[in-house]
Amino acid sequence: MKREEALSYRDELNPCEGAVRVDQQELEQIIQSITEEILGYLGSPQSKDLCGLEIDALVCPGCDQRCAERCARKTRKVVEAGAARISAGAAVGPIEADIARLIDHTLLKPEATRADIQKLCEEALRFEFASVCVNPWNVPEAAEILRGSCVRVCTVVGFPLGATLPQVKVLETEEAIKLGAQEIDMVINVGALKSRLDDAVEADVRGVVEASHRGGAICKVILETALLTTEEKVRGSMAAKNAGADFVKTSTGFGPGGATAEDVRLMRAVVGGEIGVKAAGGVRSLEDLQKMVEAGATRIGASASVKILEQAMSGGAKPAAQTAVPAGNY
User: Fold this and answer.
1) Residue 8: inside a domain, yes or no?
2) Whole-model pTM?
3) Are residues 183 and 236 in the same domain?
4) Would you name the residues annotated as active-site residues?
């Protein structure tokens, strides 16, 4: 199957545009063909039974799928694979301005206090991170602290399970934007995706995307890739793109695993260059982060980024080559 043919299936499968619908068997054949084509393009081994295919096991046996938090080598591969942003925990340190603008400084722990949120925002202001990502309850405080700055306020919707009713996700999005959120990270309905209810998944995403865009916010769609087969990752990415999402994102950070380079490559291959890819995880050193930027990273989300920047400011390592961050959402 040619790439152009694969892309044309988006129109075929969208009943809203008056196209002819296909039956379930044809749909499964289409999805399998697209997935095999993508895996072939990526150089990954083909599999007759795509369900349950564990690419990570082939690449790194024994990997716990938390490379973005634990393994600098694989984190670098995540960026090289095409991630537009990467989430990271509070152990990351300060970095140069161009690098800092790649990072979503994140604190989603349920026990986070007002003092923790204030500290997160102060760090984001100091280093000019792309955004702070906090739970909806903390949006008003973050928005007040960051008012008038270049740091955006990001929050989560349907988090972390994605099983919230679609209308509740829309309401949560609208209320969060009223309180000051400028970016929405929503979780898809994982159970619906695994049940092959792709129309329901796409409608769920579209509701949040449209609510986000009405409020002037961007929308990132979290797949929770550690729970999905390769085929499901393809279908989830397609649903997010078709629904108009601005980003696809690997993980919540609360699932059984985080971002992997293979998942980012797969998601990038599915969505192309039209929207961003955000890998959820952590970056641990200035050297590792510099290598990611030199490799072509355009966004790196990291709440643990302060330590890295301090290393750069203290002259602990030579500055990374300046990499332009493209204007726009990612």
Assistant:
1) yes
2) 0.70
3) yes
4) 185, 249, 278
